[in-house]
Amino acid sequence: MKRILMAAAAVTLASAAAAQAQDIKIGFPGPITGSLAFLGQHMKWGAELAAEEVNAAGGVLGRKIGVTMQDSKCAPPDAVAAAEKMLTQDNIDVLMGDICSGATLALMPIAEREKTPLVVTISTHPDITSKAGVGGNPWVFRINPTDGMMGGAIAGLVEKAGYKSIAYVAEDTDYGRGGVKIVRDTLGAKAATVGEDFIEKSATEFLSVLTRIRSKKPDAILLFMLDQQLLNFMKQYVQFGLDIPLVGRPALVSGLVKDLLATGKFDGSWTIYPYYEGYAGAKNAAFVAAYTKRFGQAPHYTGFEMYDGVKLIADAVKRAGSTDAAKVRDALKGSKFESVLGAIQFDANNQAHNSVLLLKVKGGKLEVDGLFGT
After folding, report:
1. What's the pTM value of the predicted model, to 2 decimals?
2. What is the pLDDT of residue 160?
3. Class (C level, CATH) for 2-145+281-355
C-alpha cells in the first residue's frame, strides 16, 4: 500500500512539474497567405525573436515563451476562426491582434467572452481604443498609435507645409477610409480636396487615378498605402513624370521602395510612421542588428510592433507571477515598460502613447526628421 501511495505521489509531482514546464503560450492571427503575407511574415519574425531573447535570458517564471500564428488573410471571419482554434486547441494564455483593424475589432468580443488578454500592436482604427478599458472591454490593450493620433499629426504637417490642395489616394479598407476622413476633417477648409480615390487592396494599375491627379495639379498626394501596392503606385508615378510630393502614411519605410527613393524622384515626400529601422537609438540599433542577423533582412514595422508586444506580455506575466488571465490583465494595466521607442503605459482606455516618427526623403534616402509623442 505504501508503495502505491509513493507511486501515486510521484505521478502527481511529475504531472505538476510537467505543467510547470509548459510554455507560456502567445497566439495571434495574421496574413500568412494573400496580398499581405509579406507583412505577416514580419509579424511572425518579430514575435519569434522576442520569444527567443526572453527564453535565452531564462524565460519567465521558470518557463519558456512560445508563440503560434494562424492564417487570417487579414479578414474578420478568418481571424475569428484562427483565434477560436488557438484558444480551444492550442490553449494560448494571451492573444495578440491582427494587422487589419476589421480583423482585430472582430477579435475583441472573443477576448472578452473568453476572459483572455488581447494585446493589439499594429491595427490603427480608433474604435479599438474607444471600446477598450473604460470603453467597455477591459481585456483589450493597444500599444501602437491610432489613426486619430497620427492623422492629427499629418494634418498639422500639411498645414505647416502650406499645401492648399490635396489629392487623397488610399486603400479601400477601414485603415484607408478612416485615415483619409480624419485628415480631411481635421484640415477642413485649410486645404482643398481635389480628388479622393479608394483602391482595392488587390489593384495593381493606377493610370486613371494618376491621369486625374496630373490634370488637377494638387500641392500634394496624401497616401494611405502599404508596401507592394505602394511600389506599383510609385513605379507608375515615375512613368507619368510627376513631381508632386507623396505625404501622409505611404509605407516609405518598406525595403520594396528603397531603390525608387534612391532615384531622387521622391525627394520632399514624407510619412508619419510608428517605426523605422534607421532611427538612431541604442535599443533600436541592438534590435535591428539581432533581427537582421536572425532573418537576413532589416525589420519591417510589423516585426517591430510584434517584438515590442511579446516583450511587454513577458514583462506583465513576470510581474503577475502567474499566467492567470485576470492577474495578467491587471499587470498589463499597470505596465511601465521601456520599449525600443519609449515608455509604454496605458491610459483609461488601455491605450499606450508611444512615440511616432516623421520620416522625410532627402537626397534619395529616408531620414528621421522628428520624433513625436502621442
Report:
1. 0.85
2. 92
3. alpha beta
